[in-house]
Amino acid sequence: MHFAANYGWYVLIGWIPKYFKSELHVSGENLLTTCLPYVFGVIGSYLAGYLSTASFIRKKIRLLWIRRFFAAISSFLPALFLIGLAVGTKSVVTGTALLCSSMFFARMAVVGYWANMIDVAPNNPEFVMGISNMVATIPGILGNNIVGVLMGKKNSWGIAFGITSGMYVVGGIIYLIFSGAEPLDREEASENKLKDDVYMESQMEFVEREEENNSEEKSQ
Fold first, then answer.
1. Which CATH code for domain 2-184?
2. How far apart are the C-alpha atoms of 32 and 17, rounded to whole Å?
3. Most C-beta atoms within 10 A of its C-beta, which of 26, 103, 182, 213?
4. Among 184, 187, 140, 177, CA closest to 12
5. What is the structure's pLDDT at 184?
6. Dihedral-angle region of residue 89 (phi above 0 means left; psi in -120 to 50 means alpha; beta otherwise)
7. Which position has the higher pLDDT, 201 or 57?
8. Sequence ranges of the domains in the chain
9. CA triplet 115, 12, 111: central angle to 5 degrees?
């Protein structure tokens, strides 16, 4: 999914200004309009983080289902909005709304695949993230070049957005089928969790003793 998400992410951040200028005839000086998709992307990522944490802690929802839920909406909804762009629109309001919606939901993917790397490799997430990010940079490079070729030869936003939409769908399906939230090295993860629990208990006992001592000093 990281591969597919990066394809869409790099294509959108790289070609949104060109789309506004050539298709919607919005100049780069109109910063309020051209920056909106990026702003919505930031809001989407933060909102997803808050909602996923609240769902896990307060509602006791299984972590795997939280990861899959956000992976699904961050794949299939952007794909749907990009199909709307692929069909074609000359309306600035409609085009901007579709781009903002696509970026808003697409950035929720960080709660799906990105945080999932910590779930499956809690002891060494930096290695998994590093390898995944290195591989997922390839579609980012290819995506921008593919769109560049398409625009140069056919000047077709429809094909460019259609391919991006397809990548989102394929990535989402693969993630839903093969994803998991259990640590790959369960024995080591269990040992580390036990150490963390013991540490937290000792810290709580220390705080309680300090509070008792402070209360006794005040009473004296």
1. 1.20.1250.20
2. 12
3. 103
4. 140
5. 62
6. beta
7. 57
8. 2-184, 185-220
9. 15
